C-alpha cells in the first residue's frame, strides 16, 4: 500500500472490524476500503467515472457505477464518498437521491468519518467519555479525553441526580456551564456522537457545586492595560465608597482620576461582582462629574462588569453637568413575553441618570459582552432584543466572540438574551438546515411562508443584494432601484445597496437568477467593504476554471482561498450555474464567520 491508502489503513488497524482491501487493475485507484455497517455503506467517487460502492455482500467492482438514486436506496444514514485529490467529499442522500449534508473534508476528516462508519469496537458501540469537572464562580468546567471519530458531544445537566433537561452541544473536549448558582449542586453527564449519528452511553454522573472565591467585602478595581506590558495593578484605595443604601455606591474619585491620567491604561474596568445588590438585584454606582469630564478628555470608556455581563459605556459622550448614576440589574427571563420561536434566557437592564434626568441615549456605542447561558443548544442562534416604550421587542443581534455573546447598542434600557428555535417543515433533512436556522435567527432571511423555506429555489440578484445589505446593516431607507423591483420584499433594500454592494454604475438586473460566480463577486466586494484584509490568493484549482469569466476570476480565487466557496465533488465550480437559496446562505454565513460579522 502507498500514500494515503497506507495512512488510512493505519487508522483502521485500531478496529476489530474486518476490512476488505482490493487492488483494481489499470488506472483505477490502487486500494479501496468498503464496509457495510448496519444501514451505512462506504462508497467511492471515481474521477471521471461516477460513484462505485460495495454490494450487500461486501464485494466491490470498480467498473460498475451506481446512480444517486441507487445509492440512496442503499443508505439513508450516511455515506462517505472519497476522491483522489486532497479534499474528500462526504455526504448523505435521501430516498430521492437528494443531498442532505454536503461539504468538503480534509483527508484526516474523511478517515475519521470512515472509521466512524465502521464499528469502534467489536460490538459496534461508542465508548462513553470519562469526565472530570472543576467548580468556579457561578460556573462548572467539564473536560474529557477526545475520542476518535466523534463528531460532537452532548452535555446533559440538571439539579437532581439522574434528571436532565435538553443537552447542550460541545464540539471540543471541554465545556463551560455558565450562569450557575453558587452553593447549589449541579449534576452532569456527557455522551459522544459519531458521524453517523450513533450516540454512546452517558458517562458516569459527576456532581459540581460552584463556589465564589472568598474576597474582601469591597474588592479593589481591576483594569485593562492595552499592549505587551498588560498587567492588573493593585490600587492603594478601593474603587467605591459605600453609600447609605444597600446596593448603591460612589466611585472613588481620587483612584479613578489616577487611572484616567495613566496613559498606559486604555480602559477602566469597575468590577461589581463582589458588591452586594439591593433587594431587587440591582447594583447602582455614582460616577462623579469630574471623572466623567476627565474620561471625555482622555477618550476612555468605563466598563462596569458583574458575574455574567460587561458593559463598556461611552459616558464621555453623555451631556451631563453633574454626577451620573448608572444602575445594572439582571434576572432569569421567566414569563417574558417574546415573539414566537424565541426562548428567553436572561433579562438585563442598564439605566443612567444625570441628576434627575433619565438618559435614554448613551452618547456613543455601548459594547456588551454576555456569558453564554447554561443549557444553550446552539450559541450561534443566540441574539439580543431591546424592549421599546410600547413593550415591543426590537432585534439587536450579537455574535459569539471568544466564548462571549457580544453586541452593540447606543441606548440604555432593558435587553433580553434569547435562543431561536425557528425552523421550517421543508428543511428537516436538508443539508443546509442549521445554516438556514442560524441565518433566520440572525434575521438575515425568512421563509417564503410561515412554515416553508423553499431551500432549493433559485435566488435573484436583487434578493441576494438585500441579504448582503442586511449583513452589512446598510440603511434601508433608500429609494427603490429603478429596474422594476418595486413591490417585492427586497424593495427598500435595493436602492442604496446596489451602488454600495455592486459598485457605482453596475446594473442590478433584479429578477435575473444569480450565478455562483456572481455570488463570489458580490460577496468579495462586500468582504472588502466590511474591512476585510487584503488577500494574496493562489491560482484557481477548479477543473473548469477556464469557464470562469475574466471579471470574476479574482473574486472566485479570493473566496476560495478564504474558504467562503467550494467546488463540487468532481473538482468543478460550475461558475454559470444558478444558485439556490440554501447555497447562497451557506456562502453568506461562511463570509460572516470569516469577517466576524
Total separate domains? 4
CATH fold label of the largest domain: Chondroitinase Ac, Chain A, domain 3
- DSSP strand tally: 30
Strand content: 25-35%
Gap between N and C termini: 46 Å
- Mean of pLDDT: 70
Secondary-structure topology with pairs:
Elements: H1 3-12, E1 20-22, E2 32-34, E3 41-46, E4 50-53, H2 68-74, E5 79-82, E6 88-93, E7 99-105, H3 107-117, E8 131-136, E9 139-144, E10 150-158, E11 168-170, E12 174-177, E13 186-194, E14 206-208, E15 222-225, E16 240-242, E17 248-251, H4 253-261, E18 265-271, E19 283-287, H5 289-298, E20 302-305, E21 309-313, E22 324-332, E23 342-354, E24 357-359, E25 361-371, E26 382-387, E27 393-397, E28 399-401, E29 404-411, E30 413-420, H6 433-441, H7 461-472, H8 496-502, H9 516-529, H10 550-562, H11 581-595
Parallel strand pairs: 3-5, 17-19, 18-20
Antiparallel strand pairs: 1-2, 3-4, 5-6, 6-7, 8-9, 9-12, 10-11, 10-13, 13-14, 15-18, 16-17, 19-22, 20-21, 21-25, 22-23, 23-24, 23-30, 25-29, 26-27, 26-30, 28-29
Helix pairs in contact: 1-3, 4-5, 7-8, 7-9, 9-10, 9-11
Amino acid at each position: 500500500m502507498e500514500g494515503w491508502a497506507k495512512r488510512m489503513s493505519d487508522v483502521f488497524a485500531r478496529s476489530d472490524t474486518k476490512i476488505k482491501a482490493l487492488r483494481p487493475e489499470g488506472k483505477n485507484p490502487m486500494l479501496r476500503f468498503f464496509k457495510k455497517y448496519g444501514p451505512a455503506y462506504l462508497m467511492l467517487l471515481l474521477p471521471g467515472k461516477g460513484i462505485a460502492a460495495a454490494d450487500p455482500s461486501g464485494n466491490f467492482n470498480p467498473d460498475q457505477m451506481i446512480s444517486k438514486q441507487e445509492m440512496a436506496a442503499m443508505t439513508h444514514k450516511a455515506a462517505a464518498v472519497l476522491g483522489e485529490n486532497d479534499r474528500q467529499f462526504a455526504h448523505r442522500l435521501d430516498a430521492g437521491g437528494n443531498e442532505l449534508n454536503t461539504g468538503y473534508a480534509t483527508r484526516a476528516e474523511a478517515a475519521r468519518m470512515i472509521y466512524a462508519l465502521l464499528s469502534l469496537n467489536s460490538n459496534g458501540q461508542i465508548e462513553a467519555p470519562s469526565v472530570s469537572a472543576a467548580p468556579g464562580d457561578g460556573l462548572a468546567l467539564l473536560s474529557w479525553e477526545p475520542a476518535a471519530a466523534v463528531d460532537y458531544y452532548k452535555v446533559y445537566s440538571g439539579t437532581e441526580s439522574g434528571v436532565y433537561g435538553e443537552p447542550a452541544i460541545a464540539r471540543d473536549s471541554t465545556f463551560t456551564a455558565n450562569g450557575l448558582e453558587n452553593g447549589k449542586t449541579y449534576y452532569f453527564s456527557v455522551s459522544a456522537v459519531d458521524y453517523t449519528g450513533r450516540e454512546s452511553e452517558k458517562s458516569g454522573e459527576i456532581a459540581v457545586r460552584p463556589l465564589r472565591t472568598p474576597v474582601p467585602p469591597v474588592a479593589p478595581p481591576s483594569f485593562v492595560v492595552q499592549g505587551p506590558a498588560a498587567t492588573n495593578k493593585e490600587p492603594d484605595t478601593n474603587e467605591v465608597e459605600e453609600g447609605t443604601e444597600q446596593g448603591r455606591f460612589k466611585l472613588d474619585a481620587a483612584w479613578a482620576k489616577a487611572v484616567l491620567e495613566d496613559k498606559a491604561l486604555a480602559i477602566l474596568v469597575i468590577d461589581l461582582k463582589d458588591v452586594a445588590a439591593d433587594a431587587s438585584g440591582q447594583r447602582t454606582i455614582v460616577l462623579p462629574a469630574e471623572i466623567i469630564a476627565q474620561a471625555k478628555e482622555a477618550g476612555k470608556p468605563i466598563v462596569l462588569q458583574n458575574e455574567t455581563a460587561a458593559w463598556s459605556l461611552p459616558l464621555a459622550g453623555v451631556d451631563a453637568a453633574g454626577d451620573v448614576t448608572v444602575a445594572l440589574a439582571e434576572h432569569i427571563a421567566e414569563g417574558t413575553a417574546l415573539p414566537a420561536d424565541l426562548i428567553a434566557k436572561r433579562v438585563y437592564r442598564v439605566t443612567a441618570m444625570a441628576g434627575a434626568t433619565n438618559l435614554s441615549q448613551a452618547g456613543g456605542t455601548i459594547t456588551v459582552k454576555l456569558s453564554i447561558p447554561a443549557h444553550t443548544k446552539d450559541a450561534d442562534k443566540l441574539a439580543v432584543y431591546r424592549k421599546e416604550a410600547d413593550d415591543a421587542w426590537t432585534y439587536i443581534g450579537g455574535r459569539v466572540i471568544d466564548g462571549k455573546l457580544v453586541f452593540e447598542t447606543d441606548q440604555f434600557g432593558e435587553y433580553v438574551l434569547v435562543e431561536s428555535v425557528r425552523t421550517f417543515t421543508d428543511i428537516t433533512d436538508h443539508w443546509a438546515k442549521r445554516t438556514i436556522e442560524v441565518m433566520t435567527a440572525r434575521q438575515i432571511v425568512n421563509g417564503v411562508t410561515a412554515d416553508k423555506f423553499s431551500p432549493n429555489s433559485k435566488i435573484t440578484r436583487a434578493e441576494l443584494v438585500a441579504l448582503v445589505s442586511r449583513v452589512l446593516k446598510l440603511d434601508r431607507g433608500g429609494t427603490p432601484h429603478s429596474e422594476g423591483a418595486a413591490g417585492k420584499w427586497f424593495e427598500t433594500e435595493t436602492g442604496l445597496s446596489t451602488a454600495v454592494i455592486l459598485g457605482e454604475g453596475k446594473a442590478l438586473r433584479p429578477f435575473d437568477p444569480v450565478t455562483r460566480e456572481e455570488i463570489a463577486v458580490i460577496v468579495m466586494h462586500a468582504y472588502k467593504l466590511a474591512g476585510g484584509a487584503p488577500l494574496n490568493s493562489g491560482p484557481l484549482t477548479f477543473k473548469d476554471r477556464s469557464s470562469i469569466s475574466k471579471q470574476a476570476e479574482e473574486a472566485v480565487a479570493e473566496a476560495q482561498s478564504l474558504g467562503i466557496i467550494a467546488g463540487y465533488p468532481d473538482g468543478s465550480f460550475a461558475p454559470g450555474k444558478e444558485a439556490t437559496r440554501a447555497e447562497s446562505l451557506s456562502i453568506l454565513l461562511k463570509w460572516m464567520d470569516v469577517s466576524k460579522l
